[in-house]
């Protein structure tokens, strides 16, 4: 696929949303959720090409619709589902033999497969603490929340207990980059 002109995410995101709604709720709820979306977005739930690029702006709208329809805690449930789906896909096999921050590092190394912009870096402080910085990504506060949920869920998946992810720097609060401090037991 050619590199997109606007900041974009891969279409596999839309299929994950559809699967999650059907899994966590039911067909009726899924239909009602679809009706809250612009027709073009609704159509992507079923027809997005997983390998194609779609604007980051649209993923922001989708995350906001998820929260509006299913409540603020629904993002936790969605990201849990999404990470477990990803674990059975692109990072399958890594989970059983690498430590939590190692899994986060391996997953972040694949960032540009899924996002056309943004450059994550991870610094290991010790076995249970790390700092994740995301450069060149300035789209919406809801994406910051989603990224934090991904980090926590990756750590939990790799056996880290009680992950705490603190958003210490944010482009939406005037910082040059977004940064999260990650710790677990
Ligand atoms: Zn941020």
UniProtKB/TrEMBL annotation:
It comes from the Bacteria. This is 4-vinyl reductase 4VR domain-containing protein.
